[in-house]
Amino acid sequence: MIRVNENYGKLQASYLFSTIASKVSAFIEANPDKDIIKLGIGDVTKPLPAACIAALHAATDEMANESAFRGYGPEQGYDFLREIIAVNDYQSKGANVAANEVFVSDGAKCDVANIQELFATDVKVAVPDPVYPVYVDTNVMAGRTDIFTNDRYQGLTYLECREDNEYVPELPKEPVDLIYLCFPNNPTGATATKEQLREWVDYAKATKSVILFDAAYEAFIRDESLPRSIYEIEGARDVAIEFRSFSKTAGFTGTRCAFTVVPEECMGYAASGEAVPLHAMWNRRHTTKFNGVSYPIQKAAEAVYSDAGKMQVKELTDYYLKNAALIREKIGELGYHLTGGENSPYIWIKTGGDSWEFFDKLLNEAAVVTTPGSGFGKCGEGYIRISAFNDYDKVVEAIERIKGVLQ
Ligand code: MLT
């Protein structure tokens, strides 16, 4: 008899964004004439930057030519991309990351989901609350939690992000081994200062824990004093793994390209106490389970770092930040407490009421899709998240409709 992984039985019925997609589909079916505006899932709407498209075309032509054709590439990514990432995203900003520490992949979601398999099943995991659901669900699947009761998985340590701590969690009160952090934060849009990250790095060093730092939204940081990478903090190479993505930066949500940095000094520990390099483990995992991102896509990602690419990417992120500023201003004028939207594409709005009811109200009465805060965790109850990823005109229209419903 083939037995199943019963940890799946502990999961909530469906993944947050799948639940929202089903509700939206049902709404569209019942209201075929309504023009729906999606400010829910953080999916970009603007086309790829011209520099990326040109590189993609040229690389595709190479694949049509027998002398330039390429089959399997290196699982970790082509050197041309790993090197340009290490130089531009890290070394030029004073963060010490080498090309061989960059692992190119098809998405930060997959990487943050897969990385937990490097760690023992009984490690104590700390996640922010509210949280990007992938961190939680993948640990549930792996059996690191008990059942879900009182809106929380037993066995997980929740790091509460509330109005009074400006949505930046405090250090845990109980010992933990694996810590997920995300800045600029999804879903709250909150950012962390260097001093705040330093506390976490010091904690991880003192407790031999590891920080999984999700920096998928770093390209939206405009405040020069804020850290874009955890490796800007001294000592972080010993205790932190960082995830980045071209999805929100350069519009690659449908194209798929991301990377994970695992420094050579970053260690886990065997039961004997012996230090084990996580770089070697991740390399082993990546080469066994992944066959690399396609050559044309990696060439398109490389073009992000060309002069034209840098300019075009900045234009794209500026565009979404302009949407974010508008949402902040107009929803703020309605009297709601909100955060995010300044160095982040997400705006986190305190509605005070039931999150799903608020979501349903905006969907049914304004035909605007948002994300209910409670879908990100218990501390998200009473909030909704609005994403700035859409066309400016649609954002203007969505705000008018929301105002019509809420005023
Ligand atoms: C979100 O809306 O939270 C993100 O788009 C989800 C993701 O990147 O997977």
**Class from secondary-structure proportions:** alpha/beta
Note the quaternary state here: single chain
- Principal-axes shape call: globular
- Order of strands across the main sheet: 2-10-9-8-7-3-6
What is the H/E order? HEHHEHEHEEEEHEHEHEEEHHHEEHEEEH
Corresponding CATH superfamily of the largest domain = Type I PLP-dependent aspartate aminotransferase-like (Major domain)
CATH topology of the largest domain: Aspartate Aminotransferase, domain 2
Span of the ends, CA to CA: 59 Å
What helical percentage do the residues reach? 25-40%
Number of helices: 13
Q: At CATH's second level, what is the architecture of the largest domain?
A: 3-Layer(aba) Sandwich
Give the bound compounds.
D-malate
Parts with pLDDT < 50 across at least 5 consecutive residues: none
At the first level of CATH, the class of the largest domain is Alpha Beta
Residue fraction in strands: 15-25%
- The averaged pLDDT comes out at 97
Q: Largest beta sheet, briefly?
A: 7 strands, mixed
The value of Rg in angstroms is 21 Å
The number of distinct β-strands equals: 17
Please characterize this protein's 3D structure.
The chain has 407 residues and is α/β, with parallel strands linked by helices. The chain folds into 2 domains: 6-47 and 308-406, Aspartate Aminotransferase, domain 1; 53-306, Type I PLP-dependent aspartate aminotransferase-like (Major domain) (Aspartate Aminotransferase, domain 2, 3-Layer(aba) Sandwich), CATH 3.40.640. Helices cover 38% and strands 15% of the residues. The protein is built from 13 helices and 17 strands. It has a 7-stranded mixed β-sheet, with helices on both faces. A 4-stranded antiparallel β-sheet has the order 13-14-17-16. Strands 1-15 form a two-stranded parallel sheet. Strand 8 (210-214), helix 7 (236-239) and strand 9 form a beta-alpha-beta unit. Helix 4 runs parallel beside helix 5 and helix 11 (307-333) packs parallel to helix 13 (392-406). It is globular, with a radius of gyration of 21 Å. The model has no long low-confidence stretch (mean pLDDT 97).
